[in-house]
Amino acid sequence: MNDQLLADKTIAITASRRAEEQAGAFERHGARVLLAPTVRIVKTDDDAALAAETQQVLAHPPHVLLVATGHGLKSWLDATEKNGGAERLKEMLSDAQIYVRGAKGRGAVRSLGWQDSGIAQVETTESLVELALEKGVAGKNVTIQQHGKPDPALVKRLEDAGATVTQVHPNRWEEPENPALVDELINRLIAGEIDAITFTAAPAVEALLEKAYHLGRGDEVEAALRTETVVAVVGPVTAEPLNAIGVNPVCPERFRMGAMVKDLIEALQ
């Protein structure tokens, strides 16, 4: 169908997988499309490195646990259930001082029956580390559940403050093939040039916000997503980091990409 219903619309697509399929669906209705994958995610199923990191945590029970994302914490515990040692790990982690990066991390912690000791001022890993440093880490074992592409400088800050740091990477991410497209997306969102944006995975949302805050423009991007741009997601899990910043995205009843595309087209008419 080529009905030109979206002839005056610009739609940004943040997915790396099946992005061309999405683009074709919108272009058939006359839309302009910006392909700007925000992240590439590497699966860690049966990951030997994650198992080794978990053994390191078990060998050095943490005094402090830094939870970057609820999704990452759940992925880590699910992998441990599969590979063994989950109950011992949960017991150790529940005894630690737990600091969370954002509301989703706090929700994941509390869903396990645990209580956190604080939440980062801004939803970034840097702010999470700063919270831990403020509370004090000298002489303590600190486990950090990493998120996105780890920043060695943040780990060094913890170590320089006297912590023994163990990193855990439940979801291994790679930079998008063209980071400049993400910069363009951020600039165009703030300029009001993006009519709609789609997300098919929560990490894609988180990566966009992380990059925006790294550039010092996080508040502007959040405001654009709340007020200027129609946001569409493939399902409620993807919506969680958006809900946390006050964005109520278009979300289909059937959690499929095709349904998301259909609902977004209707929302833009």
UniProtKB/TrEMBL annotation:
List the GO biological process terms. uroporphyrinogen III biosynthetic process
Which residue intervals define the domain Tetrapyrrole biosynthesis uroporphyrinogen III synthase in the entry? 23-261
How is this protein named in the record? Uroporphyrinogen-III synthase
The protein's enzyme class: lyase
Q: Which Gene3D superfamilies match?
A: 3.40.50.10090
Q: Which UniProt keywords apply?
A: Lyase
Checking InterPro entries in the record gives: 4pyrrol_syn_uPrphyn_synt_sf (IPR036108), 4pyrrol_synth_uPrphyn_synth (IPR003754), UROS/Hem4 (IPR039793)
List, in alphabetical order, the Gene Ontology terms for molecular function in this entry: uroporphyrinogen-III synthase activity
Pfam families in the cross-refs: HEM4
The EC number(s) this enzyme carries? 4.2.1.75
Please give the start and end residues of each transmembrane region: none
Q: Does the keyword Lyase apply?
A: yes
